[in-house]
Amino acid sequence: MTQLTKQFPLSACAMAAFMMLSACGGGDASAPPAPATAPAPAPAPAPTAQTISFTSPGNQVIGTAPPALVATASSGLTVSLASSTPLVCTVAGTTLTLLTAGSCTVNASQAGSGTYSAAATVSNTFSVTATAKTQMALPVSFDSTSVDYGFIGFGGAEDSSLVVDPTNAANSVAKVVRAAGSETYAGTTITATAGLGFTPKIPFNANDTRMSVRVWSPDANIPVRLKVEDHADATKSVETEATVTTAGAWQTLTFNFANQASGTAALNLASNYDKATIFFDFGRAKSASVLKTYYFDDVTFVPGAPAPAPAPAPSGITFDETTPPVMTGFGGAEDSTVVADPTNAANKVGKVVKRVGSEVWAGTTVSNLANQAIPAIGFSSTNTTMTVRVWSPDAGIPVRLKVENAADGTKSVETEAMTTVAGAWQTLTFNFANPATGTAALNLATVYNKASIFFNFGTAGTGKTYYLDDILYTAATAPAPAPAPAPAPAPSGLPVTFDDSATTYTLTGFGGAEDATVVTDPVSNSGKVAKVVKSATAELWAGTTVSTGANQSIATIPFTSSSKTMTVRVWAAAAGVPVRLKVEDAADVTHTCETEATTTVAGGWQTLTFNFANPAAGTATLNTGFTFNKASIFFNFGKTGAQGGGGTFYFDDVNFVP
Q: What's the CA gap between 248 and 219, in Å, rounded?
């Protein structure tokens, strides 16, 4: 019989099981042997613990070098040190640096290695204190680390500080920045914050009244004021000034409080002066103030000699002499006269009017001897100064003083001082050891016996009036006492002939006719005449005053209602030259009369007649009630040198015609 086969479908899973059993040898139920097991690794050894030993440096004081920090680890590994208070102290390696007072904490750590575990951090905390500084005492040098220096600036000088000397890095100095637009009184008080000033007080006494300060200024000829006061009572103060004479370099200024600044209190030896304030360029107008930097150092009290010998009495010109001095103006300051002091009618002074448009060098020579001389000045290595009392309408103007040899004008020296007071008298000191820039140095071998003063030197005139008084100096000494100089002679009588050996003839040129001298007559080669050179740049009013007495005077001209004529013999290179003659009162220049005559001869002498009954147009008429004792002559009047009015002229025999 046919056997039927029944087929059963197998799933994929059953098929897989069948295949596996076949591969394993059929249906043997024995399990295969288990694989071999590896032994477990031994555990790693634990890191060794370590500790830190950190020695505290102890409390520290700023200004004293701290010791090197010492920290070690038991492992021998390097210990790291760090500050956790970096505003008070810092650490670099083992070096500790102290910054300010406070509490300093330094941490010592060791991070560990494969053998050692990290160490526990060890900290040391200690105090840092500032050095106890002492109060300032004179002299103040700004170089000590133990002194409490300080500055309080005001009025535009707030930027005042302690700095390194800009000319010497090893030196410390005070720096003052005077801002643009500063007040006239901008200054710096030398005191620590507490405002106590110096201790002990400044030891002024009857003989010792000076202090000195070393200063550096970008400009010469500026006033520096020094004020001292009681720190507990600012109403007790005294101020004085000195003038910078060197630009861009250090110099030592001496301040004598026996000579207080005008308008300030006098030195009172009973007061407790223990605080000082310095003012650079004191009085500078706010509108004229520009940014300037100044330095100062070595604030010092200057003791005098234990028993100072009395100083020799100063010589000079007081303007109160019985015979007044002669004032010879030039360059636009011809209106220079001896007058009553406008602030004290009992006192005589010199008056100088620097007219509008005058030369920048307009000035006045003051003399009481022949040839515009004064008694010789006794300069020495320790005596190089002169003083002049002056009155100026303005503060802050330079006043130049020039001294020279009256017989040799090439031997001269000039210096300057600045006015610090407007509309009041003050005494200026002129130190010829510090000559004006571009002028000769003081030569102690030279005889200086002529003096000229220049108000607002370097600036053209604007019509302002100045006064001077008490030109004082130490006179030169001779091996044997010399007799007192004879007073200036009275003016000789008319005519003025230039031939009298007993008469001193003075020619004072102005406006471009300064080259005026007494010479031998160039025509006859005998006799003396006056020579006048009117320069190529001369003013139209260039002229020459002829005098034989004090204050540019001659004998009084005896004008009357019927006698109003004078004559002068003249020489001009051309005919048709107008010659003006002016007469005036030597003591009152408002009393004048002028008239003219014209040359008619070319290259030869002729006598011109001047009739003052016919005054020049625009000038005053002759007043016979006035005193006329001064005469000036003007060649080619009305024509400048640039217009061809210059040239060489001569005159002689100035005479009155009765």
A: 7
CA–CA dist 325, 487 (Å, integer): 9
Q: Where are the domains of the chain?
A: 52-129, 151-302, 315-473, 506-657
What is the second-level CATH architecture of the domain 52-129? Sandwich (2.60)
- The owner of tokens 């700095």 is 163
Contacts 24+ apart (CB under 8 A), 557-561: 557/494, 557/583, 557/628, 557/629, 557/631, 557/656, 558/656, 558/658, 559/612, 559/622, 559/624, 559/628, 559/656, 560/624, 561/624
Fold (CATH) for 151-302: Jelly Rolls (2.60.120)
* Equal CATH topology for 151-302 and 506-657: yes
Instruction: State the SS3 of 233-250.
Output: EEEEEEEEEEECCCCCEE
Superfamily (CATH H level) for 506-657: Galactose-binding domain-like (2.60.120.260)
Asked whether the beta carbons of 387 and 427 are under 8 A apart, the reply is: yes
Cα gap 141→611, rounded to integer Å? 75
Q: What is the mean pLDDT of the chain?
A: 90
Structure tokens at 404: 């020279």
Amino acid 483: pLDDT: 46
Extract the tokens encoding 280: 């650079």
Tell me which residue of 106, 351, 307, 80 sits closest to 206, measured CA to CA: 307
C-alpha span between 552 and 549 (Å, rounded): 6
Regarding the domain with residue range 315-473, which homologous superfamily does it belong to in the CATH classification?
A: Galactose-binding lectin (2.60.120.430)
pLDDT, position 42: 67
pTM of the shown model: 0.37
Q: Give CA–CA dist 580/632, Å, rounded.
A: 8
Q: Which residue has the tokens 């560990």?
A: 112
Helix (H) or strand (E) holding 14: helix 12-23
Q: What span, in angstroms and rounded, lies between the C-alpha atoms of 396 and 420?
A: 5
Residue 43 has pLDDT above 80, yes or no: no
CA geometry: angle at 519 spanning 513 and 521, to 5°?
115
CA 142 – CA 158 distance, rounded (Å): 19
Please enumerate in sequence order all residues whose Cβ is within 8 A of that of 89, keeping only pairs 6 or more positions apart, or say none.
Answer: 83, 96, 97, 98, 99, 104, 106, 128
Q: Say how far residue 214 (Cα) sits from the centre of its chain.
A: 12
Using DSSP, state whether 267 is helix, strand or coil: coil
For residue 26, report the phi and psi dihedrals to the nearest 5 degrees: 85, -140
517-567 pLDDT, tens digit each: 999 999 988 889 999 999 999 999 999 999 998 889 999 999 999 999 999
Does 477 score more than 80 pLDDT?
no
SS3 384: coil
In 3D space, the residue among 62, 423, 472, 441 whose CA is nearest the CA of residue 262 turns out to be 423
- Residue from 570, 494, 503 nearest 530 by CA: 570
